[in-house]
Design goal:
InterPro entries: GntR_C, TF_FadR/GntR_C, Tscrpt_reg_HTH_GntR, WH-like_DNA-bd_sf, WH_DNA-bd_sf. The chain is mainly alpha-helical and about 300 residues long. The chain has helices spanning about 5-20, 30-40, 40-55, 85-100, 110-115, 120-130, 150-175, 180-200, 200-205, 205-220, 225-245, 250-270, 270-300; strands at about 60, 65, 105-110, 135-140, 145. The protein has 13 helices and five strands. The strands form two sheets. A three-stranded antiparallel sheet has the order 3-5-4. Strands 1-2 form a two-stranded antiparallel sheet.
């Protein structure tokens, strides 16, 4: 399929998404406004309008464009593109927000972003609807999406919620029987932390995946689908902020390894009080680091 044909199909499907937000008898905006919204030229807009008219989706009479009916699934055009799994799309979207410092209040152009990420507009719409549960985006009253942004207040709320979830996991973990598979996993984590500590002068960049595995392992003892969903987004946000904040990276990673080891040692001793103290200390450090990286990035 030619790229230009695929562009038309993407835009037409985006037009269908726009029409789905309207009611029959509503009037569509001008070709120029539709072009701005869909991120394409008037030529492409006119081709899409012609298709919609042929399918009796709209009545097109000069400048007047009236919606006749709601779009149906069968109206959509197939696309010759990869359909990313939701987790990959989530990672790429958050990286786009954090790396390019997209400001709060930015309208999200679904058609343009679907091309940026190489996914269908429909998949991106579904993804944004799911992401709205976390307070990062919201649906606009007149259609489309608005980025609420990653602000300092959001970072504080995120850190506080992360602390609630992780402290709960620590409390549950220390009560597990010795036969539980979590214990050998913690032992292996401890060895991996000690190994990286020995190589910290040269291999401090390797801390990020180890940090993800550390928190994921601790939180894995909580069998709760809602917790798992929120933990995934929380982990991604912390991960990407650490990726572009390179200030004192080796020192910061070395200190974090020490805090991880203190928690691992307390957990392996089944010391509930010491485990909670170590977890609280590390979560406070993570919150401080996140806020610092956010402030430094805004000023940089």
């Amino acid at each position: 399929m030619a790229r230009s044909d695929n562009r038309f199909r993407e835009t037409y499907n985006a037009l269908l998404d726009f029409c789905a937000e309207l009611s029959p008898t509503d009037t569509l905006p001008s070709e120029n406004l539709l072009g701005d919204r869909l991120g394409v030229s008037r030529t492409v807009v006119r081709a899409c309008l012609q298709r919609a008219s042929d399918d009796r989706l709209i009545r097109w009479d000069g400048r007047d464009k009236t919606l006749l009916r709601a779009p149906l699934p069968g109206d959509r055009m197939p696309l010759d593109m990869q359909t990313e799994d939701p987790e990959t799309l989530e990672q790429r979207f958050l990286e786009w927000i954090l790396r390019f410092d997209v400001p709060a209040g930015t309208p999200l152009n679904v058609a343009a972003l679907s091309r940026e990420f190489g996914v269908t507009p429909q998949l991106l719409q579904e993804f944004l609807a799911g992401l709205s549960r976390f307070g990062l985006v919201e649906r606009r009253k007149k259609g489309g999406w608005l980025l609420l942004g990653f602000t300092a207040s959001f970072a504080v709320e995120l850190s506080e919620f992360r602390s609630l979830l992780e402290l709960n996991a620590v409390q549950q973990l220390v009560t597990l029987p010795g036969s539980h598979p979590i214990w050998p996993r913690l032992e292996a984590l401890r060895e991996d932390h000690l190994s990286l500590l020995d190589r910290i002068e040269t291999d401090f960049h390797d801390f990020s995946p180890l940090d993800e595995r550390f928190h994921a392992t601790i939180n894995s003892v909580v069998q709760n689908r809602f917790v798992a969903e929120f933990q995934k987004v929380i982990a991604l946000i912390f991960h990407y902020h650490y990726m572009w904040d390179k200030t004192l990276e080796r020192h910061r990673n070395q200190a974090a390894i020490g805090e991880h080891l203190a928690l691992l040692d307390a957990l392996l001793l089944r010391d509930a009080a010491a485990s909670e103290r170590a977890a609280r200390r590390h979560l406070l450090t993570s919150k401080t680091t996140l806020l610092s990286s956010l402030r430094d990035h805004r000023l940089g």
